[in-house]
Amino acid sequence: MENKQRLQSLDLLRGLTVAGMILVNNGYGESFEMLRHSKWNGMTPCDLVFPFFLFIMGISCYLSLSKNNFTPTKAVVLKVLKRTVLLFVIGLFINWFELAMEGRPLDFAHLRLWAVMQRIALCYGLVSLFALFCNHRYTLPVVALLLGAYTLLLIYGNGYSEDAATNLLAQTDLRLFGYDHLYHKSPVDPEGLLGTISSTAHVLIGFYCGLLIKRHKELSQKVIALFTVATVCLIAGYLLTYGLPLNKRIWSPSYALVTCGLGALLQAFIMQVVDGNATRLPKGWLPFKVFGVNALALYVGSELLAIIFGHLGISTFIYDCLHAVIAPLKWASLAYALVFVAINFALGYWLYRRKIFIKL
């Protein structure tokens, strides 16, 4: 299978994931339970979108760095470091932009340090440096080491406690960064520092899947390899839930394994359906292609647009118009989220038609 075909399936899964991230992040008012993150233990469909993105990022890291045969030249290392810093700074800018829209542009004392883009940045940087400087045969042992070490932290650091005063994850962020720089809607900051351990292992599983995709020549072999990884991850992850429940807020080892398993399963399915078509993109997949080729740019744009809409009253206006014809609150909320996704699709389609691809 040609590289172009393989990347098409990755673009589609990436696009599906980013569209899902925008959808679940932009409900208005009372949303369906499945479109809200689990409050603590457990997992909803909403909890799948971000881990899917990290899993795909791991695959992309392998395929991208393999073009230079993983040679750690000065240029390549600097490129990785610059991109890591750029992604982190963009995350800080999103957090600052919300303060600015509230009329507090200089209130750096309350600037949240962590968020989705910062988690992406750290995981990308760590996995890319591993790819450049370490033997790839140690990928799975490193995954096991990271998840094992994080398991011990959760067990001995009271990581499942919903009391921030006794939870090691919460206390670490609090002592290092201060209360005013953290997220306060859950016992721990869901993108906090120690959770990076498990999420880095998560991206490394995706990296290993990229290795398998690159290693195998035939489409059927690639699909079987991904199904195998999916099966192992799902079995191991669900077995772990007996002692370590699924928990997105702390990115529990069971959560990392189960979501990687589901991600590998979905990637295998899309690869089988799409990459077997050597001539054109199958009908119905175009929206995901549009989101996929400018994934991070559209995600960042959606976050900024949501802040603007919220503070200028545009969100309320659109929702009220929808609620006037859709009485049930949850359905009106879903309608608003779909309209917001459609607005971002329109922006993405404009870029796509003009062959503008923004690489962050």
Kindly list the characteristics that best describe this protein:
mainly alpha; disordered N terminus; 360 residues; single chain; globular
Task: Explain this structure.
Helix 3 runs parallel beside helix 11 and helix 7 runs antiparallel to helix 8 (219-240). The longest helix has 28 residues, at 74-101. The protein is an all-alpha fold and 360 residues long. The protein is globular and about 55 Å long. The chain has helices at 3-25, 49-65, 74-101, 116-133, 139-156, 168-177, 195-215, 219-240, 253-274, 286-293, 295-312, 314-325, 329-353. It has 13 helices and no strands. It is 67% helix and 0% strand.
Summarize the structure.
The two termini are 27 Å apart. Helix 1 (3-25) runs antiparallel to helix 2 (49-65) and helix 2 crosses helix 7 (195-215). This protein has 13 helices and no strands.
SS class? mainly alpha
Number of helices: 13
How many strands in all? Answer: 0
Q: Using only CA atoms, what is the Rg? A: 20 Å
Approximately how much beta-strand content do the residues carry? under 5%
Helix content: 55-70%
Can you write the helix and strand succession as a string?
Answer: HHHHHHHHHHHHH
Mean pLDDT: 94
Low-pLDDT regions: 1-6
Distance N to C terminus: 27 Å
Q: Give the biggest sheet.
A: none
Shape: globular
Helix and strand topology:
Blueprint: H1 3-25, H2 49-65, H3 74-101, H4 116-133, H5 139-156, H6 168-177, H7 195-215, H8 219-240, H9 253-274, H10 286-293, H11 295-312, H12 314-325, H13 329-353
Helix pairs in contact: 1-2, 1-9, 1-10, 1-11, 1-13, 2-4, 2-7, 2-9, 3-4, 3-11, 4-7, 5-7, 7-8, 7-9, 8-9, 10-13, 11-13, 12-13
